[in-house]
Design a protein that fits this description.
Elements: H1 2-22, H2 25-44, E1 50-51, H3 54-62, E2 70-74, H4 80-88, E3 93-97, E4 126-130, H5 133-143, E5 148-153, H6 158-168, E6 172-180, H7 193-204, E7 207-214, E8 220-226
Parallel strand pairs: 1-7, 2-3, 2-5, 3-4, 5-6
Antiparallel strand pairs: 6-8, 7-8
The protein binds S-adenosylmethionine.
S-adenosylmethionine (SAM) binds next to helix 4 and helix 6.
């Protein structure tokens, strides 16, 4: 019996601990990312409310908008977050996506990940702008002169987030709310949406405060307090 027990526990050890954990870096990468995230939260976000459930976070954040203007989502994908947003917003929500998936390898996902075979079904108050951001946004801005009330950044990539802030940065004003879907809490989070936003803040002098964050996912939201690029008066 003792012999069986030892053999059995050794089997468990070899199959599950040695094979799946001791040499698997994923767990340690996530733990490291989580520790860095917690340090960032403690240093920068402690006063903001936190959420465990993603839909509740989105709903709360939409209620914090304190500026008139456009509601925009960058990265519509399957349309899951767009359906949450559109159901809580009275006017039009504009969604931007190539639907071809990510153009660069990101966080273990290959080029083309999140591509859609067809444009997703979205509520009636959604207008989709299909194509790469740098191709669709300039024309959109020519025909829409409003500032931004709500900006949902869910395109994962540093380069795509840079494009968003380059093209739309001057449309953010005090009271605008930005929700990031992949801000932190994953391997090398400091190199993606977070980095693009922090670089924009540095360059533009944008003032902001954190208004909500997720303790189970990667989301964080900010409200703009002032934007030197804003000329809307
Ligand atoms: C994670 S998915 C979005 C998920 C979506 N919000 C949902 O709830 O289903 C990221 C999306 O960003 C899009 N994307 C990333 N960079 C882009 C760019 N520069 N131009 C257009 N679409 C882009 C991809 O095509 C992909 O559909």
């Amino acid at each position: 019996m003792l012999l069986f027990k030892r053999t059995f526990s050794e089997l468990i050890f070899r199959r599950f601990i040695l094979k799946h954990h001791s040499s698997n870096l994923l767990l340690d990468m996530n733990i490291e990312a989580k520790k860095d995230t917690l340090a960032y939260i403690k240093a920068n976000m402690v006063d903001a409310p936190y959420f465990e459930k993603h839909p509740q976070l989105v709903k709360y954040v939409l209620g914090q908008i304190d500026a008139p203007g456009l509601h925009l989502e960058f990265g519509v994908g399957r349309g899951k977050s767009m359906r949450w947003i559109a159901s809580a917003v009275e006017g039009v929500v504009h969604g931007f996506d190539s639907f071809e998936g990510i153009q660069e390898h990101w966080n273990g996902n290959p080029i083309g990940a999140f591509a859609q075979k067809q444009v997703p079904k979205v509520p009636d108050n959604v207008e989709l702008h299909v194509g790469y951001f740098d191709a669709t946004v300039p024309g959109f801005l020519e025909s829409h002169s409003d500032t931004i009330a709500f900006l949902h950044v869910d395109c994962d990539l540093y380069s795509s987030t840079v494009t968003i802030f380059e093209l739309l940065g001057d449309r953010l004003r005090a009271g605008s709310v930005i929700l990031f879907d992949e801000y932190y809490n994953f391997h090398r989070w400091q190199q993606h949406e977070f980095k693009a936003f922090q670089e924009f803040v540095e360059k533009s002098g944008l003032a902001y405060e954190y208004i909500a964050y997720s303790v189970t996912g990667q989301q964080a939201a900010v409200r703009v307090l002032g934007n030197p690029l804003d000329e809307s008066g």
